[in-house]
Every structure is written in C-alpha cells, then in structure tokens.
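Sample log: CUB domain-containing protein.
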Amino acid sequence: MRSGNAMELSAILLVLLHLSMNVVDEGHAVNPSCECIRFTSTYGKERGTFSSPDYPRPYPPHLSCVLYTFIAAPHEIVEIIFTDFDIYKDPIDCARGDYLKVYWEVQGPGPPGAVNERSAWARELCGGRPDAPPALYSPGQALVLEFHSGPRRSNATGFVGTYSFIDKRLFDTDGVRIPGTECDYQFSRSGSRPQHGRLYSPRYPSIYPNNVRCTYHFHARPKERVKVVFEEISLQKGDLSCLRRADIIKVFDGRDSNAPAIAMLCNELTGYEVLSTGPALLLQFTANSATPGQGFAATFHFQPPPDSTAADSDRLLKLSFGKAFESLGPEVSATTSSCHQEFNSDTTKHGTLTSPHYPTPYPPNTHCHYEFFGRGKERIRLIFLDFFLYKTADGTLDCTNTDSLQAFINVDGRLEKVQTFCGIDLPKPIMSNGPKLMLEFRGTQSSRYVRGFKIAYSFVENFGISSGRQLKEFPCAFVYNSTENRNGTFASPNSPGPYPRDTECTYFFHGGETEKVHLHFTNFDVEGVLPCEAVSASDYVEFSNYMTEDNRYGRYCGQMKEFHVESERNFFKVTFRSNDRLDGAGFKAIYQFLEATDEYQAPSVQDKASCSLYKISNLQNILAISLLQYLLYH
C-alpha cells in the first residue's frame, strides 16, 4: 500500500527480490516510495530465508528503499539471524554509504509492522560479517528491515539470513512483578514457589529500553543462600571500566543497596556467578546509555543450608562447578578421602592443606582434588609454604609428564586451568577469579626425597590488597586520604603473585586543597600490548584526575620499567582491569601527597618508552621515597 503523504521521495524502486522461498501478501509501505515484502509464516519449516537483491551477486546501486517486514503472532517475537553480511561501509559511518536499518518500535494505529516516514529506526547496520549482530530480536510481534544503497557501485554482495517466530513466553521472568513498577520483581522461597527459576532484563532477547532501572529482590528461607548465574550479559561492546558505563548491573549482598556490593558487571560476560552470604540478595540493573544492548539472561537458585542433608558435598560441588567436574573422574565425589577435600568458608576462613603423608614422600600414583567454596565477594587466596615435587632429571623446563599441581577457575561457565606447578621452586601466591577454585594434584612418580607441598589458604574479601580503606559500595575499591597517610604503597590484587582474572579494582586518592598526588611505579607487568585496547584482549591500568574519563594519560599495559605519574589536582583515580584471558605479575607503587607548588624535573608522563625517574627537588621527598622503596622490597 503506497502512502499519499506529500513527502513523496523521488527515488523509484527498481529491484527484483530473489527470495529462496515464496512470500505472502505484498504489503504496507514504510516510507512513501517503498514497497514491502511481508513474511508472516515459515510454512511449516523451522526457519524461513530472505536475501538482498541479486544475492550472491553484488546488489545494484540506487536502491532507495527495499523493505522486509516480519509479522509474528501476538504471543510471538521475530528472530533474525544473518548467515552472510556484506554491505558497503563508508569510512565515516553507515549513513554515508549503504545501510540496513532496523525498525521494531512499530506500535500505534494500523496493522502490525505498519510504520511511516516518521518512524524511528533502532539500529543501522553496514560493513562485513563481524559488524552484524549475531541475531536480531523484536520486542513485539513485528520487525522491519529497510535496505538502501547509494550511487556508488561496489562489489558488496549484500546479505542472506533466516527468520523464525519464537514464543515470547519463553523469556518470562519467574518472579512476581511489584505492582506499579515496570520491571521490579520479588523472588521468595515460600509456600509452593519453586526454589529455582529464570530472570531476564526488560524485553530480552531484544534490546532493553534506555532510561530504566530494574530491581530484582531475592528472599530465601533462613540459613539458605541465593545463587545467581548470569548465562549471558550483553550491555555494550568493549572493555571500559564499569565505573564509566551508563548501563550496569550491581549485586548487593543483602536486602537493599546499603548492603555491601559483591559484583559490578558491565560490557559483555558469560557464565558469571554470584552467591549471597545470607538469605537476601538484591540485583539492580540500570540503563542510561543511548545505545542499549541485548541485556542479560540469568538463573537463580535458593541453596539449602550448608549443614543440611540436601546440601551434601557431592550436590554442592555439582551446583557450583557444573558438569565440568564430571570429566575429572569418580574420585571427585570421594570427598571422604584424605586425598579429596572440600574447604568451605562457612566452616573456616583460613587454614592449611598438605599433600598426602606430608612432610614425608607422597605415594606413587597419587591423584587428589581440593575444592574451595566461598561466598559473597570472597576470593580464595593460596600462599605456598613448602613445595618439593618429583621431577625428572632430563632438565625439561615445562611440567608435562611429571608430578604437578594444577589450579582451575571458572571461566565462562566452564573449568579452565590457569596455573601448573612442578619441581621445587616455591610458587607465588594465587587467587581465584570468584568464590570457587580447584586444585588437582597428580603425583605419579614420587621418590624418597620429595616432601610434597604445604599451602595456607584463606577466603578474603580485600582481594589481597592490604593498604587503603576498602569501600563497601564497590566490589574492589580502596581510598587513600592524605589526612590518614601522606605516603604509602599500593599494589595490584594478590601481589606479589599474579593478579586474578575477571577483576576490576579502583584506587581513589584524596589530597588536601593545595595538594597533588605523585605515584612511583616500581614494578609493572600487566598483560597486554599498546594501546591496550579490547581488540588485543589487553588488561590495563588507567589514570584520571576525575571520576570520569581523562584522555591525558591513556592506558598502560605490558612490561615497563620504573615510571612516575602525577595528578593535576588533589584527586586521582587509578583503575586496574583484567579480562578472562591471561594474567601478569601486576604492579607495585608508592604514593605521595605533595604540595601543588613542588616542582619536578622530569620528562612528560606521556613518554611511556623512557619511563625514567623524576628528579625531585625536595630533599625530604627523596628521603621519603628511598625509605618506602626499602620497605617495599624488604
């Protein structure tokens, strides 16, 4: 149906649509010069298909408006998956080249999918396959694609995709919506209500609305715990600090936002798990950005008390680590053996573990598992007190085919090995990326000279950071005030051991009105390559004179010699962020609050290559730094 609107576009639709299946009723115009091809059924197949004109040959230029309208049943939503995507992209933006616009706010009078020249499009797509989303989902029963090509002729072949209609009730949140709210839910463990279920962000799997705040309140029975597993989080692409994101998920270990924060999540994650310390948990989802993402899908589970018969060790293990442990063999369930042990923070917050028969030699063909289960924001930290395993005399440097101790953590919902230790060198401390960690010991050889190992373990909430004052508003944030200490040290989590993965820590420095902050990094080894961006999967450290971004400093990563950074005002923020890929030794630094009038003869802090020492004119400052260096290294 062509619109009679006076805003008639001059372009004429001259295109033959090559579709891989017949399509029903040609239909409603979205823009005055457009005609629409409607998809209202898959005709008994699981999926239907659609494609750009002339696909797989290059599409013609001057396509003013080719429309694809998908109409689902009232209880369904539309799913679009591109199997190939190649639309010419102008170097500046999509609007200057060819593009595919996505409309899904197709509400108002008229039939479903009927929009006009005043309708707002939600997304604009162009480029190659990596630029296309994995899937598109409509928030309602209709979705419209508008394909446009400009005057430039290119070799771009366009797109081909599949569509299907999905029952939107599959994405209902298994809670009780609080009356008078748009997306606040209560989850309680009472009566006949289930002890587990699912929860979603608004409109999931479509994009969530902006300017929205949703709260999810969990109330378990006394002595029970609340476990939430985020199967998928897709807010924005990139690796920005969560403190700089407008769309964020915060998890509080209690009934309200005054409780300690145990997780702050942003960007994109999979398989992230949180476990409350008590029967209450609050999840708060805030979206204020102009570019909303797909949101999140999660499961919740009210776990029984640790000392109940329902929470026997084998079940607790499977609830926490999932099927990944099942491949490790039946010995994992044999927790009654002295060689297979569980350590739960409900029982004790610290202790020691040893290899069998320590300090005498462990038996040949020894195979042990040690599982650690924390709660809240707790991380497991292991400090090696003694380590002496059998190793062949052939001089090999790796740990293959020899006695070894391996550490596993949970990454993307699966077990991943992060460290392997062998020989006689005392390992540095290790730390989990969450409230769970597993050790696997294989002592196949042994000898009369070996002792095995002795390890001190602890469940910590301070991420192994012993300086500063920890804030409860964030999972890992520390404050340094000049009114408390004018100088001191700070370090990355778990220092002097490698920092944990999936970790963001922030260090806030507050000086007096006439002071500035001076940082002297004595060690720096943060996994990554300049410019330390997400494309290279780099961990990084960044600095700012403000709570928000500060482009003066940029990001720091890699291995660097000693260097200095100085603030321009009395406030300074240092952010450390690691991903789930690799880890490094981290950093150690000395901080000083100095009067703003103090001058340094030093190269620019932008010269990261030189990283040479500042020449400090004040003799007292020189003595203070020398003393702190001595304390740091001894």
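Observation: Residues 1-30, 312-337, 600-634 have pLDDT under 50 and may be disordered.
Observation: The first helix runs from residue 313 to 321.
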